[in-house]
Write a structure and sequence with these properties.
This protein is α/β, with parallel strands linked by helices. It contains 13 helices and 16 strands. The chain is globular and about 60 Å long. The two termini are 27 Å apart. Bound molecules: zinc ion.
Length: 490
């Protein structure tokens, strides 16, 4: 969520002016536009991530269901003799799994691990503020270069659910927009295949009839008692969301068939609240310290939820996925909070998978949430959906080589923000701004992980990167929003 929903007629002037309290733009990024470029060819294997469609895969639906039922019976018995839930989680399982997908709003990737040469968690020890996630990571396949699909909630979650770049989804075009029924969502694909689908949220935006994100969910619940506030997140909700998850996971349908639960924890979103018991940071101060405290508080409730999961008869055939919808800025590029741009601090997110039978490892090549929907479908035993642009990560989760691929990040123009799109190819990040990609910023992330200095215009790597971007952008099947129209689309 970024703060604000300004369905204000005439807010086409990029509405930055109306965001007095939201993502505060302190210094215009336009100042950073004298770019020059460069580099290179990151040559590596430019396998096109987004357009690759995985052919086949995954078992027959009926066979999968049957296997799941068998596994259910077995595991119920096993649970009666299990001595420790902790040892059962994620260690065995064949056939279709359940998927527990937990996201934490605004969680930067470097809150959990270093981002390239940069220190983790503002120089703090991540295990101090996220001990549960740090422990889980030791049992997980961890992607250290994961990219969200966009830089704020509505676009990022819409893309995750749609399995597409957000600009490709039918929507109204407002900042906190609504996705249309014609958008075929992940939960609809899962429900059509017989999976029990549950969504648990903790912000007003997700209420039914507001975002269109509830499409396909058999159960869709928002924590009770939320304050109606579109400008920020004033609540502390991890406790209520955790309780909601336990309730949903205790319903009979969870025992009957494969299920998918997405729960989205909100507390690290601004406003950053102090939490009693949070360890004092050694280095971080001010809003960064409070943000880490919010992470610590969320982590405490994730511990409760994971402990609950470990005690369930279905624990050993449940895959757990942890990620975030976007990152968070603390003054980098003159920006605070999130949205509006696609800098690394806004779009790099944690991403880890604990999958039964998978050996823990760390994968450092770039990956994108465009692969999330195909992976979840695959883990749940649903046949591959050939219309989705992403590919299932299941093979590499199970040990297959993780080859470099190009990653794209998409921020469509809305009532309140300009159009941005980024192409990340190895160490080279090419960011385009404007409806016609009128301005480019190209960075070498190896030497400039904070994107402080775009490559010089005389650098041949810049021209090559822009040319590559232009050649590949035709793959996007952007659809114009149907209510608020960007100027260029009028
Ligand atoms: Zn968000």
């Amino acid at each position: 969520m970024v703060s604000i929903r300004s369905r204000v007629a005439g807010s086409r002037a990029l509405g930055l002016a109306v965001f007095s309290c939201a993502a505060t733009v302190i210094a215009s990024c336009a100042n950073r536009t004298r770019h020059n470029d460069s580099v290179a060819a990151n040559a590596s294997n430019n396998v096109e991530a987004s357009s690759a469609i995985r052919a086949g895969s995954v078992a027959e639906d009926a066979a999968s269901r049957a296997a799941h039922e068998d596994a259910t019976a077995t595991d119920v018995d096993a649970s009666q003799t299990a001595d420790s839930g902790a040892s059962s989680l994620g260690l065995r399982g064949t056939g279709p799994l359940n998927v527990l997908y937990l996201t934490i709003d605004s969680l930067r990737s470097d809150a959990l691990h270093p981002r390239g040469a940069l220190p983790a968690a503002f120089g703090e020890d991540p295990a101090r503020f996220a001990p549960t996630l740090a422990a889980l990571a030791r049992r997980a396949v961890v992607y250290t270069r994961a990219y969200a699909l966009s830089s704020y909630t509505s676009m990022s979650v819409g893309g995750m659910y749609g399995g597409r770049y957000p600009g490709e989804l039918p929507r109204d075009g407002y900042f906190f927009g609504e996705y249309r029924p014609s958008a075929l969502m992940l939960a609809e694909r899962l429900s059509n295949a017989g999976v029990h689908t549950m969504g648990a949220h903790a912000h007003f935006y997700f209420r039914r009839g507001s975002s269109g994100l509830e499409q396909g969910f058999a159960r869709w619940e928002i924590v009770p008692g939320l304050v109606r506030n579109n400008t920020t997140d004033v609540e502390v909700t991890s406790d209520r969301l955790e309780a909601l998850c336990e309730r949903l996971l205790s319903e009979p349908a969870v025992r009957d068939r494969p299920w998918f639960l997405h729960a989205h924890f909100m507390d690290p979103h601004d406003q950053y609240r102090p939490h009693r018991g949070s360890p004092p940071p050694v280095v971080a101060r001010g809003s960064r310290a409070l943000y880490l405290g919010e992470l610590w508080f969320t982590d405490q409730h994730l511990a409760r939820l994971l402990s609950f999961v470990e005690r369930q008869p279905w624990a050993s055939r449940t895959a757990i996925i942890i990620s975030a919808d976007h990152g968070e800025a603390f003054g980098e590029h003159g920006h605070f909070r999130h949205g509006f741009y696609l800098w690394e601090e806004l779009v790099r997110v944690p991403w880890m998978f604990v999958v039964p039978g998978a050996t823990p490892r760390v994968i450092d090549v770039a990956r994108s949430h465009i692969d999330l929907a195909p992976t979840i479908l695959d883990l749940l035993g649903v046949p591959a959906q050939r219309d989705l642009p992403g590919i299932s990560l299941r093979d590499e989760l199970m040990g297959a080589p993780a080859n470099p691929r190009v990653v794209w990040v998409d921020l469509p123009q809305t009532s309140d923000n300009d159009r941005w799109r980024a192409r990340i190819d190895g160490d080279l990040s090419t960011i385009a701004r404007g409806p016609n990609d009128g301005t480019f910023y190209v960075y070498d992330l190896r030497t400039d992980p904070e994107q402080r200095s775009p490559l010089a215009r005389t650098d041949p790597r810049r021209a090559a990167a822009i040319e590559q971007y232009r050649q590949e952008r035709g793959r996007f099947r952007d659809v114009p929003p149907d209510q608020w129209r960007p100027t260029a689309a009028r």
